């Protein structure tokens, strides 16, 4: 088992009177895919946004590479090497692949863009991920399929020497063939030594690519354990009831939100 690259300890987050995250512990290890699963309203998105620096935590510790860090905004997360690929992908249809990958981080001198350098870096990144479905990095995003768009969004995230990549429902709107491409890409990210967090409702995807599964239930971490040590039905029970046999929360707080 590899050393944790990202650790969350005792994370709490409230929005007014609503306590969304309750003393959540969460670990991401380099070279592994950790699936973060839970029902709607379990707190998955809030936890991801706390990691990404969008929401400040109320209490708890965040450790990165073994040292305690403070994440006050998205720039702090990006500087550490944490990138998030949201479900809407945040791509601009009117721009090509290169322009999207460097959007807001363009390279150049004296106000002149270095198009050749950016194009070469985009090609190199896609090649390192063994992406063969994109014929030209100058193809407008509007002309890409759903799977190709997801691939571009993931490549954009790893372009910046990231160490942890969080993927929010990457296969939600994809067909069978495109889902296969994205899942293969997720595994390649882990094989390159990145810590990958996969947020998904699709249990088949989770059990296929995840090394560990973390189950959130009403804002509490019900269990976090190796995929090989848990069954499909146990994960469903942890998601829906917070407990499965000896696993999970002793007394789920039914009043939690």
From TrEMBL:
- Indicate the segments forming the ABC transporter domain, all copies: 6-243
**What are the entry keywords?**
ATP-binding, Nucleotide-binding
Q: Which domain of life is it from?
A: Bacteria
Single annotated GO MF = ATP hydrolysis activity
The UniProt entry, under InterPro entries, shows: AAA+_ATPase (IPR003593), ABC_carbohydrate_import_ATPase (IPR050107), ABC_transporter-like_ATP-bd (IPR003439), P-loop_NTPase (IPR027417)
What Gene3D superfamilies does the annotation carry? P-loop containing nucleotide triphosphate hydrolases
Q: What is this protein called?
A: D-xylose transport system ATP-binding protein
User: What is the species of this protein?
Assistant: Goodfellowiella coeruleoviolacea
